[in-house]
UniProtKB/TrEMBL annotation:
The keyword Membrane does not apply. Pathway: Secondary metabolite metabolism; quinolate metabolism. Belongs to the metallo-dependent hydrolases superfamily. ACMSD family. It comes from Agromyces binzhouensis. This is 2-amino-3-carboxymuconate-6-semialdehyde decarboxylase.
Amino acid sequence: MGSIDVHTHFVPNGWPDLTARVGPGTWPSLRVDSEREAMILVGSSEFRRIEANCWDAGARLADMDRDGVDIQVISPTPVFFSYDQPGDRAAAVARIFNDLALEVCAPAPERLVPFAQVPLQDPDAACAEIDRAIESGHRGIEIGNHVGDRDLDDEGIVTVLQHCAAQGVPVFVHPWDMPESPRLDRWMARWLTGMPAETHLSIIAMILGGVFDRVPPSLRIAFAHGGGSFAFWLGRFENAWHRRPDLVGVSDLPPSAYLERFSVDSVVFDPAALHLLVETLGASQVMLGSDYPYPLGESPVGDVVARSDRLDDAERAAILHDNARRFLAL
């Protein structure tokens, strides 16, 4: 059985002028430099150079076959979320990119599984777009790990998560919009330190903000990049919950009691880190991910699982495909 990669991204090969379509804003656009290369712009600033494997299903499938991947979950690139815009404009942008995602996946619908973006800053509009996207062929949604200063325990975001639980829609949480500072702007430090910290913070918000106490266990939610630094610091978190109940012990149960309520991907690159995830969360809570097709992703896909010498056959199968089948309800 081939593997299932739950963490990949797409960029369509062009989209309508968003200023003309939805109104003024600092919108992303695409400068196509050749048949195989393009540049994402945000306003007039270059954001990221991309290649045709972002939009070309044939290129994706060839890479999947090379790495033994049967199925990819295709999620938005977070720069398109538009959480800083009014809800109606973000909803319009979400519809555009969600429809384009279906076109990217159309050549191989049994292998390319689209996840939608939603206007998370507007709960009613987000729930409406979830329903529309699922009806049109999406299998789940990807959300950013925060909206401005609102983390995942924000009332509006909890409403969206409750809707996903009720409708059986899986949720993939991706860090984005990391803080900037002179210290973080060197060496890609926002990606090297900010992404793990952002993801860790949002898992804490899910626990201490009481989200897992209020959202039914039927919610299928997974966090990118191995859950950030959460697994490494669970012991510190647990200790603080017991020793400072006035400030930290605000959830119904201690942090370790919620480990079966969420999953993480395997984008941690080192077998020792993967072993820590399995020992902390259990093999049932870890799914293969790669961050394909971006340069900081894992290649070949599944390399960290292949190099691990401490996984038994059942754990390896769980990480490579069994857990994702459950997450996606395949």
